[in-house]
Structure formats: structure tokens, C-alpha cells
Amino acid sequence: MVLSQPTVGHPVRFSYAANGLDSVALSALACRLKTTHAPLVIVTANAFEAQRLLEEIPFFAPDLKVNLLPDWETLPYDVFSPHPDLISERLATLYQISQNVSDVIIVPMATALLRLPPVAFLSAHTFMLKKGQQLDLEALRNQCAHAGYHHVSQVMSPGEFSVRGGLVDLFPMGSVLPYRIDLFDAEIETIRTFDIDTQRSLYPVPEIRLLPAREFPLDEAGIAKFRSQFREHFEGDPQRAKIYKDVSKGTASGGIEWYLPLFFDATATIFDYLPAQAVLCLHGTLDKAAQSFWFDATSRYRLMAHDPEKPILQPEVLLLKADAFFSQTHNFSIIQAQLDLANPLPAIDVDRRAEHPLHKLNAFIAQTQQRVLIVAESLGRRETMLQLFNEHGLQVQTCESWAEFQQS
What we know:
six-stranded mixed β-sheet, 14 strands, single chain, globular, 15 helices, six-stranded parallel β-sheet, about 15% strand, Penicillin-binding protein 1b fold, about 400 residues, Rossmann fold, alpha/beta
């Protein structure tokens, strides 16, 4: 299946008979778009579909840089915060989108509706450290603290740093591994990754990028903005609210993400991060997904909005409405992808009780004009399938990748 490239105002629609076929078509399109620096942004109906595409697209096009903008995995107005690894992945993806270095960006609908920090926040709170650079340790401590990093005795998680003499350990948000900086006087002599379990250095790198540790500023200016906006949004004595008192002390309370708009004059949306040439794929029944998420948010708001010690923001302050989301998609080239339930693929399951267990698969192979690729979920499973095929006279050739299959 070869997709036509859409243009603004002229969407392309396609349907696919089974999961996986959409990934083939979308990966091929993304490879073509990559030559023009146009990212493919896939908005899925749910997190499951997003994860499926995240795993499948690199199989068909391993050279593509594919990023997921994950959900917070919390319910609206929850009193606990997302896992630090999720925040790290979100910040890394948002930064990469803003720099237009991703080829494919996958976003679940619930995530796409969330209001985001302004693009300028990420750029203003991101800084680089390079080998040979002069480094003032006190200035670095202050810079890390302003970016939301925690000073610890031993670095173990993203968003932490430690200083021990001429050694600085940093675990940047969005990074897979932490880094150890070795100083010679005030100059960065080496930067190496290290293992958090053994604390042993691994391999050298020329530079590292430090993203902010949170999606909002908890420095002096950020706290002042939060306090001012809080008093504007909520009536009564703000000192009755635990979140107000905690933020005033510089503490990030559980669930603080649901107060994100109070830290900024204006928030952004996913569309503000995208380049004009981005191509949007609206994947699945997004209207139903948006309505469902809005129903959950408004229901929880009505249930929880009357506690003076925990005032909460209205859903429209935190989220895009469905009509506003779809209205903004019209500024981009659009692909609409739907699973074709009316024309599913024929059943090819193995019937072990039959005299010829592979009769359905054999019939499918006999009637198709195309070559057939059978994918196993593991090497062990592949060996089991090969044994079954050999026992019943089905001769197959093994391959290790999609590219090898295409060239065979």
C-alpha cells in the first residue's frame, strides 16, 4: 500500500484490513517525508495503539527516528504525579519536536488534548555542557536547581545531580544513562556515561544536553507567577490550600501537573511545537476518544470541585476541547486512517485437530499473488513454527528483517 502525500486542505484517507498494515504504509510515507524534513505526527485513539505503532514502525523502517509523547498515566485531578521516567520521556520528545529532529511523532489523543508549557520555556531552561568548556561549580549548582534538579549524594534517577570535589554526576531528563563530568581546575576534562548500579564509568561523550526536570518552573519567578495566578483563579484564602503553601515553599506536591497553566502567562498546545510542514495522521476514532476523555475530566471536576483546601482548575483551562483540536488540524496536511472492519483478512489460524492443520494458511498462500511474510514474536517461537511447517510440508525461508524480506 502506497499512500499519496496530502496537502493542506486536501486530506488523504486510507483504510487497512489488519493491525500492522497501517505501519507498513505509514513508515513508507515517513521515509519519503524525511527527505523534506517534514515529520509525520500520528495521533492515536489510545495509548495501546500508540505503543503498537511505536514498536512496529521501526521494524519496517529502522532508520526513522520515532518518538512517543506519552500520557501522564494519571487521571485528571489525581493527587499523585507521573513517574519521573514518563516526565523525562515527555520532555525529551517535546524538545526533539521543537528542534524538528524527529521523523515520526506518536501522540495518544488524551495526551494531544493536554495544554503544554510554552516552547520558549524548554529552550530557556535547556543548556549544554561540552568537553573543554569552563565550568563554575557554584553557577552549575544554581542552574541545576533552577531547572528543577535535585542535589543528592548518589545519582540514581533522571533529574538528579551530585557534586564531589572535581566530579559532577548528572542524570539529565530524557537521557537513558547518567553522566560523570571530571574537572581539571575549572575546565571540563572528560564527560562519560556511567552505570547507576555499579557507579562505574562507561564511555566518553563530547557533550550533554540538560533539559528542565519538570514541565513548569519552580524557581523564584515561577513560584511568584503561580501564587499570582492562583489568587486570580480561586476565591477565598489561598493559605487554606495545601498546593498553594507547598509551591510557595518551592515544593512540588503530588498532582502539581494539573496546575501547570498557573506557572505561565499562556500555555501551548501540541500544534505550537510542530513545524508548518508537518503531516498529521488522525489514526482511528479520535472524536470518540476525545469525547470520552472530556467526559472523564468534567465528571471528575464536578465530583472534586468543592473542596476549599484543594481547589482545582476547570477542564477548559487544562485541556483543548475536541472542536478546538480538530479545528487546528486544518492548518496541516492530514491523513485519516481507519481500520476496515467490513473487509478483514481471512482466517489463517492453525487447526491442530484437523488432518491438515495448515490448510487455511496453505489456501491463503495459494490464492495470493504476493509473497507472504510470517512474523514470530521471538526466536524460540520462530523455531517452534518452523518445526510445525516442516512437519506438514510447508517450505519457508527465514529472514532477519523487513529489508531482508524485501530483497529476498
